[in-house]
């Protein structure tokens, strides 16, 4: 589904991604962890073209993202993204936020679109908020709406860029529970950047540990958390466990 081959990314002289080689299979749930500034968010943002790579090859759903002829709108139809700060349309109701992309991009029948949107709101526990404006919601509720909005496009892959990092602690659990349910019930490919280690351990098939723009360890979840091989990863986990 997603394949990196020798991918490099620079911001001026700063080498943000260094020779990334990574293959993510269809239906896998892969978690990216590592210290701040390690390149996790940059990597995930390259997958739907929010960041362009400078060297190497990046294949997503059979498309080469480094080729100029690649239609990024086609990629984004099939690769959803959930951001740290929700990115909801504040001038539209919760229901309208979810219905907008399927209406404009998929040309979905309006009655079917509304039925799907309400079902997704029910799935994330917010059906009663359908007619609310985003400004009336808590941060956790906004993030659950953002997840429902991404699911409305029936994506093949869903990217999460630290979806709980902007939330108050008491709001985190509801969002993580929705993500756990998606991971357990769907055939979607999930790529998740998170600092929630308990959640990462519970949902992931694989863990990618990054530092200084490099992948230092790529292992099955149980193997990584029980017995990390890389010294930097060992130190990172020991520090996380202390806190």
TrEMBL record:
Family statement: Belongs to the ABC transporter superfamily.
Keywords on record: ATP-binding, Nucleotide-binding, Transport
Entry annotated with the keyword Lyase: no
GO terms assigned for molecular function: ATP binding
The ABC transporter domain, residue ranges: 2-237
SUPFAM superfamilies (UniProt xref): P-loop containing nucleoside triphosphate hydrolases
Organism lineage: Bacteria, Bacillati, Bacillota, Bacilli, Lactobacillales
Domain of life of the organism encoding this protein: Bacteria
Protein known as: Amino acid ABC transporter ATP-binding protein
Matching PANTHER family: AMINO ACID IMPORT ATP-BINDING PROTEIN, PHOSPHONATES IMPORT ATP-BINDING PROTEIN PHNC
InterPro entries for the chain: AAA+_ATPase (IPR003593), ABC_ATPase_HisP-typ (IPR030679), ABC_transporter-like_ATP-bd (IPR003439), ABC_transporter-like_CS (IPR017871), MetN_ABC_transporter-like (IPR050086), P-loop_NTPase (IPR027417)
